[in-house]
Design brief:
The protein is an alpha/beta fold. The protein has ten helices and seven strands.
Length: 252
């Protein structure tokens, strides 16, 4: 009996990610959601600069390459051009989404654009060599903060879900992680819901996934997963930050 099969929406090719990186897990969850909803033929992914820059080699759906930070703007144009026939998602890292692309992120959320955003938060610039990111933790050592991030000099990390939850526009915001089986299953549920929201025309959904970066964190893969539990989750608590559909049910 087959207990697991590779998603059809994920191409059978080697991934370029570093050993222990959780991008591969998240790719699989996105592909499984596409498979289960039967939307591969109408799905368009948008991947900008960053570790996700080669996502067009991995997903079987159509993919568009966006300039650094501009994925929400590109996704908005694609979705508005043919809203009835396109399911559009972005796949973005924290340096991309929360730094150079922050304006696109905020305004797409404020307009409640009917797109799905998969936001990978590994608290560092991964592809470009391990520099401090907008999400790097206080005290975190990076290539550009060798003595640890000092909030007095660099400010505090940006908590994207908390910030966007203050806007009236977004439909659904949730933070998840994939560092153990239970959390992987919960992340799958959240990603599936985000795509369903778009199919149902509900609007902007963002799933923030706390992810590991063993190479740039200078850790073994197993220690990187522990670091998510011990350091990242206490600073970036998991959970739903906004769900307008649930709020409407409660208020009935």
């Amino acid at each position: 009996m087959v207990v697991f099969d590779k998603p059809h929406a994920l191409l059978d090719v080697p991934l370029h990610y570093c050993p222990g990186c959780t991008h591969g897990i998240i790719h699989r969850l996105v592909a499984e959601a596409i498979d289960e909803l039967g939307i591969e033929g109408k799905t368009i992914g948008v991947a900008p600069v960053g570790c996700s820059v080669m996502a067009y080699d991995y997903f079987a759906c159509d993919m568009i390459e966006a300039a650094h930070g501009r994925a929400p703007a590109v996704a908005t144009g694609v979705k508005r051009a043919d809203p009835e026939n396109h399911i559009v998602f972005t796949y973005q890292g924290d340096g991309d989404l929360a730094s150079i692309g922050m304006a696109e992120t905020v305004h797409a959320a404020a307009r409640n654009e009917n797109i799905t955003v998969i936001f990978i938060n590994n608290a560092i610039y991964g592809m470009t060599g391990g520099q401090m990111a907008p999400t790097s933790l206080p005290g975190q050592v990076t290539q550009t903060s060798p003595y640890g991030r000092d909030p007095k000099l660099c400010g505090y990390p940006i908590k994207v879900c908390e910030m966007l939850s203050e806007l009236e526009g977004p439909e659904y915001l949730e933070r998840v992680t994939v560092n153990n089986v239970k959390n992987v299953r919960n992340a799958k549920r959240a990603i599936l819901k985000a795509f369903k929201n778009q199919i149902e025309g509900k609007g902007f959904s963002l799933i923030e996934v706390l992810s590991s970066c063993p190479t740039n964190w200078g850790m073994t893969p197993s220690n990187a997963l522990k670091w998510i539990d011990e350091k990242m989750i206490p600073y970036y608590p998991l959970g739903v930050y906004k769900d307008r559909s649930a709020e409407k049910e409660v208020n009935k």
